[in-house]
């Protein structure tokens, strides 16, 4: 064999090997989300993907598109529905009025940790109390972050009066009503937009958990923190329905074993650990941290938050939705999900 033939053969073998490794999977799934690739949240999703790939013997592979590189955070759910992405992890409340019963979990006092909140929301889904809201995709699992608190750039917040006139980022309309009742001016924006907005003075503070203060580097800017457990934000990891339905039964079974409560709790533990790290980061930096006695039951805060809760549930009931039934069940679950 001459040198040219040997080179050509080697090249073909190399190309063949690369092609085999790239296209070995029967399903190459595009997973879009808005967290930075450097965040612990992204690492949690990678753990899920690696387990999925291993369990499928490589017949399913997952390609990540973090930091809104494939779809903007508010459009992520529709991106999966319309098959721009195959899987997403996103906030239901970014699509206003689309998941109203799910967002009952955001109300004050439902959960005090990501593990507890994730148990509540996954249970509500498993009991078919909120599942109809997701008929256009194939849900893998649902979870929440830990307690959402108030973090400000230039002012300590001890009473609702301290919030008067402050522009505070809110994640959803549910949280917006609470902040408005407390005297703040809620400003809606997805988490990735908060750093430049806080830096430029577009907002004075954020309503977020400690995890987000670390994941989105907000501890660099906000040095005053008020812990009260204002809300717990809900998330969904969901898949394009047609892709799931196209899978053979054995691969559907693999996906099914990577769904539900087990993985809801695994992702919740990631958030709870990151909450600890985010708070430690602020303590190390010498920030001011105010922990309100009683949290949302503190006498100065409770009346406003109770009003916001009743207003939200009442508005849904007026539209014929079983909001109080879902809320009552969520509160029951919160006791058993401890």
From TrEMBL:
Keywords: Signal. Residues 1-24 form the signal peptide. SUPFAM superfamilies: Periplasmic binding protein-like II (SSF53850). The keyword Signal applies. InterPro entries: DctP_fam, TRAP_DctP_sf. This is TRAP transporter substrate-binding protein. It comes from Neptunomonas phycophila. The lineage of its organism: Bacteria, Pseudomonadati, Pseudomonadota, Gammaproteobacteria, Oceanospirillales.
